[in-house]
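Q: Convert this sequence to structure tokens.
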Amino acid sequence: MGPQFLFATGIENSNPTIQNGTVRVDEMEKCGHYQHWQKDFDLVQELGICFLRYGPPIHTTWLAPGKYDWSFADLTFQDLLRRNIAPIVDLCHFGVPDWLGNFQNPDFPALFAQYAYDFAQRFPWVQLYTPVNEMFICAQFSGYYGWWNEQLKSDQGFVTALKHIVKANVLAMRAILKIRGNAIFIQSESSEYFHAENPAAIRPAEVMNARRFLSLDLNYGLRVNSQMYEYLLDNGMTRDEYHFFLGNNLKQHCIMGNDYYKTNEHRVSANGQTRAAGEIFGYHVITTQYHDRYRLPVMHTETNLWQGPNGDEAVNWLWKEWANVLRVRNDGVPIVGFTWYSLTDQVDWDTALRENNGNVNPLGLYDLDRNIRPVGQAYKQLIADWDHVLPTHSVCLQVPIVMPEESNRLWAKEQEQDIKEASADESTAQANEASAQ
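A:
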């Protein structure tokens, strides 16, 4: 199958803990997905969508090292296969099982890699993965803001969470590639920008604008600047740990996913405090900054807005984001997909899941009664209008997406074998080059 544009939505599977680990915030449960999963997949198809950000609930699936309850995953993934919906599998979304503790646990990366390997072995037809969702945000909210999981408020807490989370992502990619040689990894990461409010705020804003890249720098093996290197080492990363990240060669398997919301831009004051800036630069400018840094194909992996009192606020935001996607593409950035996140309204997103209030937030393509919202109608029309226009013009991936129903076809198997052999040759060449130095 030739390259195609990835119009997507998602079914939110966040599951962080709050209140010192005593309360699990399970967004799938709050939004009724466990009861209505078949209906939810019906809605994905109604919209004309073939790609779904989706994953099993990690805290009820992964019971202990090497021990799993695959019952819900078997039901849902078998149904996605039957429907020929390609999941972008979200294996870790802001939480870990109780037995693992939290992201300060140094055993997490290796254990998670085994979980990813065992998932890929059970569902070998899956090609698209986001092993760990929003690595920067997960580390920030858990280790620096004190909101989730370990609920720490320190630079050391942040760096420790970050190094474990990104290492888990890297090891999971390696593990999945052993099973599925043509796997594609879509990093869903928040794209941030920090605006200096006055001249005295320029320095703290510069630090924050360097820090926002740390998760992807480490994930893609890009050297951080000297200030960030000192920051990492001062807060618990060792030189060996840093060199582990520099040794990565997985970038060729990756798409850089950028999440953009109105809350992604910040105003910085002279004392380093931040507050929401609203949309100033917008998706086009900020995504271009990220693409300039990493030079990878791009996907817009999350956005939404409340349906407000006029009823058209979310629709207008959808069109604004889509206009930004087209602008990025017309500027020569290889943008391969777009996502409204998520399929249904969310619960307690207004407090970033750190309070268990049960507030329904009207952010979805459908409400929680599974009735379509105006933005759902608009997205359905947008997909119908653009789906057959974009692929012929866009600079796309060298590796075609293999839809679930085609995963056992001879051409798909041959392609996977070719990629495995090419990757092995490249790894050998890199090893030889390193030993020669």
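The chain has two domains: 6-406, 410-437.
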